[in-house]
Write a structure and sequence with these properties.
- By secondary structure, the protein is of the alpha+beta class.
- The protein has three helices and five strands, in the order E-E-E-H-E-E-H-H.
- Strands 1-2-3 form a three-stranded antiparallel sheet, with no helix packed on it.
- Strand 4 and strand 5 form a beta hairpin.
- The longest helix is centred in the middle third of the chain and has 14 residues.
- The C terminus is likely disordered.
Length: 141
């Protein structure tokens, strides 16, 4: 199904719809989805995205991601929830998200590298370094 240029896929049995993955989506490695090489055409991190239309909310989100060193996950392939008018990331029975099954957003990766200066540590992809190098970046910024 295609709506306003966006391709959606779905399952008639479970009645779930999601934004289709591009044909050139990278293969999973050890069961983990790999990030795309570049940000999606409708990535939240691209200039002019609807997510950035409220500057205060966008700043709040990016500041939380930066200071908590949390990853932002790609919406491609994630079930859509019409009631929330957004994405419905999968949840375990305890309410937590199985982040190992989610793809880290390529736009987020580029943003993270730009604001942190870090190339070796990216939240959601590489283990956090044991040193205080990340904290030093924030102090110097």
């Amino acid at each position: 199904m295609r709506l306003k240029g966006t391709v959606y896929e779905g399952c008639g049995t479970c009645k779930i719809v999601w934004e289709a993955l591009p044909a050139n989506a990278p293969l999973d490695v050890d069961g983990r989805p790999q990030p795309f090489a570049k940000a999606c055409d409708n990535c939240a991190f691209r200039q002019g995205s609807p997510e950035r239309s409220d500057p205060e909310a966008w700043e709040g989100l990016t500041m939380a991601l930066a200071f908590q060193e949390k990853a932002f996950y790609c919406h491609k392939g994630v079930p859509l929830n019409e009631a929330r008018d957004g994405f419905d990331y999968p949840k375990r029975e305890d309410g937590t998200h199985p982040v190992e099954q989610l793809r880290v957003c390529a736009g987020f990766i580029a943003w993270w590298k730009g604001i942190s200066g870090q190339r070796d540590y990216i939240p959601g992809i590489t283990p956090r370094p044991q040193s205080d190098a990340i904290a030093e970046v924030w102090i110097d910024a």
